[in-house]
């Protein structure tokens, strides 16, 4: 099918499994980002509206023109319970793409959270709730609803590539994206890393203050000579 004839709303999405989402929820975004090779994190401008907000689930990807949310409404209509809306709003903050009404609809529909590289509004109300909304900023100006967008096609959002069905995990540190076919590997690595970090923190509390790798790293970087120690 020629590109011009492709439907702008793709309903055929292979999602990360509910069990994989359940397992991933055990780990901070930072742990997952580290074991993913420090790739796949969204720019720090994407923040939760309140510190307590966390999310994890398969991505429903949305691309909109700045200031228009028509495609977000389409995505909300086809999303399944547990999905996360991931909206490439081009980082535009001139108009909000979503507010209390749409967030209420999304929550009632079972959508597990919303990530927008753009602005939202009604933050006073939304930030007092636990429904997770991550955005790049705020603006009281409302959106238009007439410019075509695309749903469930690959997007680039805040420095990361996202495919529909990929795993997205977010908390107060930000958002990380894990490709669907890498999730099991990343979860296994996260389990190992968390165990190592827990052990290291316990050692610090017991007086083992200096990382064992530090002298070697300093020598390799030329900051210490052979045989020299701190």
Automatic annotation (TrEMBL):
Keyword match Methyltransferase: no
Annotated binding of Mg(2+), by residue: 122
Binding-site list for substrate: 99-102, 121
Gene3D superfamilies per the UniProt record, alphabetical: Ribonuclease E inhibitor RraA/RraA-like
Record-linked Pfam families: RraA-like (PF03737)
Keywords from the named record: Magnesium, Metal-binding
Reported cofactor(s): Mg(2+); a divalent metal cation
One MF term in the entry's GO annotations: metal ion binding
Keyword Metal-binding: yes
Family annotation (PANTHER family): 4-HYDROXY-4-METHYL-2-OXOGLUTARATE ALDOLASE 3-RELATED
Name assigned to this protein: Putative 4-hydroxy-4-methyl-2-oxoglutarate aldolase
Organism: Erwinia typographi
Taxonomic lineage: Bacteria, Pseudomonadati, Pseudomonadota, Gammaproteobacteria, Enterobacterales
